[in-house]
Amino acid sequence: MTRAIKIENLWWKYEASETWTLKGISIEIEQGEFVGVMGPSGAGKTTLCLCMAGIIPNAVKGDMRGNVEVLGKDTRGTPLSEIMKDVGIVFQDPDMQFVTMRVIDEVAFVLENQGVPRQDMIKRIDEALTLVGMQDMKFKNPLELSGGQKQRVAIASMIARRPKIMIFDEPTSDLDPQGKRKVFSILSKLRDKYNLTIVLVCHEIEELVKYADKIIFMRKGEVIKEGSLKEMFNDSAIAENNRIPLPQVTELYYRLLKSRGLKFIENGPPLTIEEFLTLFNGNVEKGRVKEISYTRTHYGEVVLSLRGVSYTYPDGTKAIKGINLDVRKGEFLVIVGPNGSGKTTLLKLMIGMLKPTKGVVRVFGTDTRELSVSDVAFKVGFVYQNPDHQLFCNTVYEECAYALRNAGLDENEIRYVVKEVLRQVELQGLEEVPPYFLSKGQRQRLAIAAVLAMRPEVIVVDEPTTGQDYEQSQYIMDMLKSLNENGRTIIMATHNMRLVAEYADRVIVLIDGKIVADGPVRKIMSSLELLERASLNPPQVTLLTLKLLGIPALTISEALSMMVT
Amino acid sequence: MVKTFFLHIEDNSPLIKLHPVLKILLLIVINIEAWIIESPLILLIVLTVMILSFKPLKVPLSRIARFLLFAVMIVQAIAFSYLLGSTIPGNIVLLKLPWGTYVSDMTLLYAFTMILRFLTMLVGSTLILAVMRDVDITYGLISMKVPFSIAFTISLAFRMASIFLEDYFKVRDSMALRGTNFSSGSIFEKANKYSRLAVPLMVLGVRRMMELTYILEAKGLGLRKKRTYLYQFPLKASEKLAIVVLTSLMCLSIVAKVSSRLLSFPGWPFV
Amino acid sequence: MDGMDKVLGESMEVNVRQVAITGVTAGLCLPLALFAIILIPIPGLPAASGFWIPAGFYFVMTLWFGIWGALGGHIATTIAMGYFFGYTLHVWLDGGIGDLLAPLVCLLVFKLTKASPELKTKRDKIVWAIAVPLSSLVCGLWVHTIHLLFGTITWPFWYIGVLTYFIGDSLAVFTVGTPLLKSLTDYVKQSPMYVWHQR
Predict the structure, then answer these.
(1) Confidence (pLDDT) at B232
(2) What distance in Å separates the CA atoms of residue C131 and residue C138, rounded to the nearest whole number?
């Protein structure tokens, strides 16, 4: 049978670029396979997707060497219209993907371009929307849907074409855990029902291992390792040397083996909780459990206070409903909740960017209605999700110096502060580089540096790890933790429960604009029913230890210390 | 209720059901006729009929209210221009100005006529556009043999505008969060602050351009010369007749304007 | 159009790239045009803004990406002006077409003189300093002649209008456009859509 995708020694360089983006990639994907592609930012994953879809080299200029065959057709010699008959591609940003004003028109658009006859088109639109569960939303504006619904519409618009191969470039990075689960489940259904070949770029290794047949790990334009799930994770040394992220249960397994001197199990490491439980139920004694309880109690005075706060947008949407909340100096507070729960609105109320329609928000004792945004700025720093929304100077240096100049500091002091913050975020040496020339990860760090330069006592961060690979996410979180340990208060919104467990002191769960839970991270992570209601999952290791030992571990190290053999 | 470009209107409005080509042609004809006709009486009649048509055509008259402020500005501008800068001869000279221009009775009538012309175009266009959906514009233009890519670009512009508006507010807010006070300072200082928004907006624009290219390629835009369409708008016999009538009316008006003084301003040409 | 095609040095075939350029330029300029009309109107002159901010953007987009940038500016102006003054033939012919002509004149000047929008050499800066007022003048002449033909202004106001337009547009393009060209041309050059690649 013809392979779905065959890539031989592919090299690719964009026009006007001096470096190769892809270097000697060779991959074979069989029809019906579900392949995961992982790697840090800048690894070349999106470029690889564009090559597989034939967009490179047909619609993008550059230098291509090697071969790419899609269902036996060489992408260089085959018109894009031919390739597109068999290949669908869905990108990361759901908002950018919509080019029409109605769901039905969005799905029809692709079919119209393909010249599908009208009667057939109507049938395919219905089929596709039913498959993704969006048939009742036909006439809605795609922009009014939730993140998960948007991606389902994007999937429907590709499915309607009845491709044989579907490529997804980080389709779940902006979604809450429930949205992610739904998307993965649809992909699996598609593969099973239509024997579709699926190539999925994502960072969620724990979800990926439930569905993927094979994983490809890339770094700096090269394939570092590829293979079946067992092959990928069979050797912990290789995984560690290449910094391949492992599912938490797998990492726990390897650390148990190492620390306890246990025998290596030939079937390979467990990749899911169920496999871990099966493996260890008979082989390891559930020993005496050392419960770890750690809560920091040395918090200072109240820095942010919300009393009876509600906020209604001008279009009538009630985003926040009657919130009471105190944040103390030195806390690391994380706000979690499904998409559309009001997390970003709450953060904006906290920094005075929005004024409450009811109730009072006080920052260091002052009502935010008496303060302008720039008044609050030097006390409470805010980092946006997209760094491109907060970089507006010509050089890295100017970016960090901007706020300090607004504050009237002299040049010597500015120079000192800028040097210090750039060192903290590891961007020293790039002072004269324009921000837009930096990579995404660097821009995110620069955005944080620009805020750090203001030396705010409170730092508010909106989903800093969305779209970031695990390494980059950890780097950012380590930086925030270090700032917290040095006395800054950190308030963060995120979907990433693993990072919440590893870094937060206190967690607030927001559903539909209301706080439904507020407490120490361990307590929140143990409340499975609550998390389910909030469309959230606890980290894998927490769920595992709850099932195995009846108490939640927040990190792998904790879990390790709980398992006495 | 049906959602059109600007509002929701009742779906039993007769204009909603018109063929997109007819809607676009009506838009063109109203504007050209208003341009050709210089007779104040005819313009007044046309304008009155259009305003009175709003109710039977089930289009809310409040649609025009939106333009009220700026319409007043234009009317004022036209009046200003004629009162201070014209030399239209008339029966009575009402005011002579030091720089050589004057205001006569005909000046006032002519200014009034130009105001009627502007209002006729405004009211007529609003009436038609109030019942146009995005598919009408796209399909109407395509039916008139405008390439789909061009027709599609107009609706794409609206999509992108809402994205960039959001970007604008986020960048402006992030500048405020770094200590910029947009409400203080002289006009030049404010202009300098706002001008900083240009670079990040442009960077976002260029990035989105590349992204959009990939997305449109992935959706197969322009891959085939022959494209099919979900919506169908077969022309009824009555609509074909209406197109012929409207086109003939336009041609006849041009002929009448050129060969007679039927549609001209009274007393034109001024001696 | 054929001659223009050769001078501008680009393909006139509409493809995805051109759609993206036009759509994004129009989308970017549209909110800016709406602000400019509200913030700085000129009393006495119909639909005029004293500082036409979007001009800075679509001039630059045209220099980088060719005629498609100008088309985007045209669409944005027509939609924005129509939002306040109605979608009439008058609005389309004066502001819409005027704002299509202006950046094209600027592009033509750059192409004919073989200057670069990077504005790094003295020659490039001189060309920019001449092209912008020339384009604004052409646009001003067009717009106010249309006003005259529609009877919304008289001859004395034609002169005033042309002068105001010339100053207002040039100011906006110099203020907004110059930093954009100087800061971002190097970055945009990496894009395959940059029109100078096609020389």
Answers:
(1) 85
(2) 10
Quote the tokens at residue C61.
């987009």
Q: Quote the pLDDT of residue A293.
A: 53
Cα B218 from Cα B66, distance rounded (Å)? 40
C-alpha to C-alpha distance for C109 and C128, rounded to whole angstroms: 9
Distance CA A115, CA C186 (A): 40
* Percentage of chain A modeled with pLDDT above 90: 55
Find, in chain C, the residue whose alpha carbon is nearest to that of A99. C23
pLDDT given at position A223: 95
Residues 6 or more apart from B176 whose CB is under 8 A from it? A353, A372, A373, A374, A377, B182
Q: Among A395-409, A510-524, B169-183, which stretch is predicted with the lowest mean pLDDT?
A: B169-183
pLDDT value for A180 = 86
This prediction has a pTM of 0.87
Supply the DSSP symbol for B133: -
Interface confidence, given as ipTM, is 0.85
Residue A466 contacts residue A385 (beta carbons within 8 Å): yes
Residue A535, both tokens: 């469309």
Reported as a single tens digit per residue, the pLDDT across A65-122 is 999 999 999 999 898 888 988 999 998 887 888 988 889 999 999 999 989 999 999 9
**Cα of A16 to nearest chain C Cα, Å:** 5
For residue A27, give the amino acid letter.
Answer: I
How far is residue A473 from each of residues A347, A502, B13, C51, measured CA to CA in Å?
A: 20, 12, 56, 44
Instruction: Find how far residue A72's CA is from the centre of its chain.
Output: 34
For chain C, give the percent of residues with pLDDT over 70: 83
Residues from chain B that touch C54, judged by Cβ atoms under 8 A, are none
DSSP conformation letters of C40-95 = SB-TTSTT-BSS-HHHHHHHHHHHHHTHHHHHHHHHHHHHHHHHHH-S-HHHIIII
Each residue of C14-31: b (16+ CB within 10 Å) or e? bbbbbbbbbbbbbbbbbb
Q: Is the pLDDT of residue A29 over 50?
A: yes
Confidence of residue A234 (pLDDT cuts 50, 70, 90): confident
Would you tell me how many other CB atoms lie within 10 Å of the CB of residue A382?
Answer: 28
* Cβ contact A436–B204 (<8 Å): no
For the segment B156-212, what is each residue's pLDDT rounded down to a tens digit? 888 888 889 889 999 999 999 998 888 888 877 887 888 888 999 999 999 899 889
Token match 């590709």: residue? A158
Residue matched to tokens 């036909």: A138
Spell out which residues of chain A touch residue C17, defining contact as CB-CB under 8 Å: 59
| Residue to test with chain A: of B164, B168, B178, B209, most A Cβ within 10 A | B178
Cα–Cα distance for residue pair A369/A361, rounded to 1 Å: 8
Is the CB of A111 inside 8 Å of chain B's CB atoms? Answer: yes
Contact partners of C by the rule of 3+ C-beta pairs under 8 A? A, B
State how far the Cα of A19 lies from the Cα of A67, in Å rounded to an integer: 19
Could you tell me which chain A residue has the CA closest to the CA of B133? A101
Q: Which residues of C touch B253 (CB under 8 A)?
A: none
Q: In angstroms, rounded to a whole number, what is the distance separating the alpha carbons of residues A531 and A538?
A: 7
Peptide bond into B20 cis (omega under 30): no
CB B5 within 8 A of CB B66: no
Mutate to test the interface with B, among A150, A158, A159, A374 (most CBs of B within 10 A): A374
pLDDT in tens, B249-261: 999 999 998 888 8
**More confident site: A550 or A23:** A23
Residues composing chain C: 199
Q: Bridge partners of B97?
A: none
The answer for residues whose C-beta is within 8 angstroms of residue A221's C-beta and 6 or more apart is A20, A21, A22, A23, A25, A43, A44
Residues of chain B contacting A372 with CB distance shorter than 8 Å: 176, 181, 183
